[in-house]
Amino acid sequence: MHVKTKHANGDVTVSAVPAGDQPSRNSKRRTYICFSITLTVLAVALIILILALTIFKSKKPITTVNSVAVRDVNATVNLLPPRVSINITLDVTISVKNPNKVGMTYRKSSAALRFKGHDIGSIPIPAGKIGSGDTKQMNLTLTVFADRLLTDVDVYGDVISGNFPLSTYTKISGKIRILNLFNIHVSSISTCNLKIDILNRKIVNQSCHYKNI
Fold it and tell me: What is the mean pLDDT of the chain?
């Protein structure tokens, strides 16, 4: 590229300027900008990853069975023909703690009453939310569906013995959202094995177990 310079005496000087200088500067500038943007994005991504793995690392909800009480027991036995009719109602209080730094939402589930692995009663647990570090208490009432026991041959002997074995099963499943970017699914299961004294209408043995998945 040529540049003309006019002097005071009227002379004109023509000088040459290398044509590649200006494009070279622009190219270096663009490279620097792209490099800076890349470093910024990588730094932000690294910060998010560190937070997700430390402060905001997901933790499983903690479910605890606070109490199980017998509200009502009604059992009748017919010797001929052999037939058992039993109705049991339990009041169960559980608490679910969210140990995370962010809120947790859990979907609709249910609590079940079981006899030797078979569901014989249930109650729905509506969907809800538990705040960061909060604990939510749930009061549940579980009732045996007597018709589901009619075909079980073990019921007769258990009722005659006076100690009726039951178990409760509760599963809470939900998700937590980390930094409004990631959804982490979490679940907690609680089971309680019970022996109920039918005559005195009380629980004589109870053991509870907890599992996070």
Answer: 81
Least confident segment among 8-22, 36-50, 67-81: 8-22
What residues does 165 pair with on adjacent strands? 195
**Which backbone phi and psi does 93 adopt, to 5 degrees?**
-115, 120
Statement: residue 90 has pLDDT above 90? yes
Q: What confidence category does residue 116 fall into, taking pLDDT thresholds of 50, 70 and 90?
A: confident
- Rounded distance, CA 155 to CA 66, Å? 28
- Which residue has tokens 């909800």? 61
Strands 135-143 and 128-130: unpaired
Whether omega before 18 lies within 30 degrees of 0, making that bond cis, reads: no
Indicate the DSSP class of residue 181.
T
CA dihedral over 42, 48, 53, 54, signed as positive or negative: positive
DSSP E strands in the chain: the ranges are 2-6, 12-16, 62-78, 83-97, 104-106, 109-115, 118-125, 128-130, 135-143, 163-178, 182-197, 202-212
Closest CA to 188 of 116, 145, 136: 136
Q: Which residues contact 135 (CB under 8 A, 6 or more apart)?
A: 95, 96, 97, 98
pTM over 0.90: no
